[in-house]
């Protein structure tokens, strides 16, 4: 009987220890997940962003502004170089269309010179030269060139260059162009060559 009683007590002690361990380890992940006894998960406090001092903030703004300035300067420099290159190319080819249009006139002059070497009649040669001249004038007119009409017009220093003055043949020619020594030309209404004239005094 004594042995049975001791065995029963030992068995009861073992059951008590097992029950306590089970209650303590009922949820082994509870501590890691910060679970409270009611089963609600507690969030870990978020890490706060570091606060910059006024000096550090100013330094950061300065670095950002300097970076933007360098980028803008690089873009402007590239634009300037590209524009200069395009302008240089335009200057080199500005007269390309006009020169190409004048090449047929040059060909006509070469043919006329060859014809004059064996020509026995002057009249056909003169007619050929007149045709070439008219062709040249037509091409230049199509490009915006215009002859000045100066004789009998009032002297204008903006378009005329007075070579000399002579007594006016009539009173109505005083202060006007009496004679023209060299034609003046306008290109799209802008003077490309002043007319050299004689003015009546």
Notable features of this structure?
GrpE, 5 helices, protein-folding chaperone binding, 201 residues, 3-stranded mixed beta sheet, 14% strand, Protein GrpE, cytoplasm, Hemagglutinin Ectodomain, Chain B, alpha+beta
Question: How does this structure look, described?
Answer:
The protein contains five helices and six strands; from the N terminus they run αααααββββββ. It has 201 residues and is an alpha+beta fold. Strands 1-4-5 form a three-stranded antiparallel β-sheet. A three-stranded mixed β-sheet has the order 2-6-3, with no helix packed on it. Strand 4 (185-187) and strand 5 form a beta hairpin. Helix 4 (96-118) packs antiparallel against helix 5 (122-142). The protein is elongated, with a radius of gyration of 53 Å. Mean pLDDT is 79; it is low at 17-35.
- What is the C-alpha radius of gyration, as a whole number of Å? 53 Å
Largest sheet: 3 strands, antiparallel
Helix content: 40-55%
Structural class: alpha+beta
General form: elongated
For CATH, the homologous superfamily of the domain at 68-143 is named as GrpE nucleotide exchange factor, coiled-coil domain
Number of DSSP helical runs: 5
- Lateral arrangement of strands in the main beta sheet: 1-4-5
What's the helix-strand series? HHHHHEEEEEE
Percentage of residues in strands:
5-15%
Round the mean pLDDT to the nearest integer and report it.
79
Weakly predicted, low-confidence segments: 17-35
Total E-strand runs: 6
CATH class descriptor name of the domain at 68-143: Alpha Beta
Give the N-to-C terminal Cα separation: 165 Å
CATH architecture of the domain at 68-143: Alpha-Beta Complex
CATH topology of the domain at 68-143: Hemagglutinin Ectodomain, Chain B
């Amino acid at each position: 009987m004594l042995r049975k009683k001791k065995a029963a007590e030992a068995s009861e002690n073992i059951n008590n220890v097992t029950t306590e361990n089970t209650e303590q380890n009922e949820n082994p992940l509870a501590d890691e997940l910060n679970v409270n006894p009611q089963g609600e998960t507690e969030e870990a406090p978020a890490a706060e962003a570091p606060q910059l001092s006024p000096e550090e903030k100013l330094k950061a703004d300065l670095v950002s502004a300097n970076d933007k300035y360098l980028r803008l300067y690089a873009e402007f420099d590239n634009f300037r170089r590209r524009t200069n290159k395009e302008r240089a190319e335009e200057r080199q080819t500005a007269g390309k269309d006009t020169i190409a249009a004048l090449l047929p006139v040059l060909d006509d002059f070469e043919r006329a010179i060859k014809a004059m070497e064996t020509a026995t009649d002057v009249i056909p040669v003169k007619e050929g030269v007149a045709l070439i001249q008219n062709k040249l004038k037509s091409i230049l007119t199509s490009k915006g060139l215009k002859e000045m009409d100066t004789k009998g017009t009032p002297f204008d220093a903006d378009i005329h260059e007075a070579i000399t003055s002579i007594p006016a043949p009539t009173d109505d020619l005083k202060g006007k162009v009496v004679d023209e020594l060299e034609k003046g030309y306008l290109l799209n209404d802008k003077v490309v060559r002043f007319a050299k004239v004689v003015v009546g005094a």
